[in-house]
Specification:
The protein is mainly beta. 7% of the residues lie in helices and 32% in strands. The protein has helices at 143-149, 164-168; strands at residues 6-11, 15-21, 26-32, 37-44, 49-56, 61-70, 74-81, 101-103.
Length: 179
């Protein structure tokens, strides 16, 4: 019996990201049909377990414009949508999403917030100057150092050690003579 690998997904108006998390996959086979059928199979693990996946996507896909990258830890698929529009969900049909299909929050973009920025693999920081982040201000220069110097911890000597004051005899109590 085959197993199902964990799948993460995210989308943009024109593409769908599918990441199959399967470390050390052997003989991975990925097939994308224009009708929106996505199939995957590979073996992995010390017992060479068979992992299979068959997803009926919500809409059609441009199979020729899609890209697949097989890595050591995961298989990343960038599927080009046949029609540029946001999907309400990944899978077609009215059933519940399988437990092994999850949202990829690292790549997720909301439709309302999306401004047509480049895809993540073309991500550019837009000239952002990170050198200013070190000078954020707020607490002062030596706040942490001041806390360390003003410690309420008392120095405690070990029971077999004598304080310097007792060694010098400055604070030793006078003992009455014994008879």
């Amino acid at each position: 019996m085959s197993r199902h690998p964990e799948v993460k997904w995210a989308e943009r108006e024109d593409i769908v990201y599918l990441t199959i998390l399967l470390p050390d996959a052997k003989n991975p086979k990925v097939k994308v049909d224009p009708d929106g059928t996505f199939t995957f199979s590979a073996t992995a693990g010390t017992d060479n377990n068979l992992y299979e996946l068959n997803l009926g996507l919500l809409e059609k896909i441009n199979a020729e414009g899609s890209k697949i990258n097989i890595g050591v830890r995961s298989i990343i698929c960038i599927l080009e949508k046949a029609e540029k529009k946001w999907w309400k969900k990944l899978l077609g049909g009215g059933g519940k999403t399988p437990h092994y299909v999850k949202v990829d929050w690292d790549k997720w973009a909301d439709e309302d917030d999306y401004t047509g920025a480049p895809a993540l693999d073309d991500f550019d920081m837009g000239g952002m100057d990170f050198s200013k982040f070190g000078d954020m201000g707020g607490l002062g220069d030596n706040t942490m150092e001041d806390d360390l110097e003003d410690s309420d911890d008392e120095e405690i000597s070990k029971p077999d050690e004598k304080d310097d004051d007792q060694v010098k005899g400055e604070h030793s109590e006078a003992k009455p003579p014994t008879s």
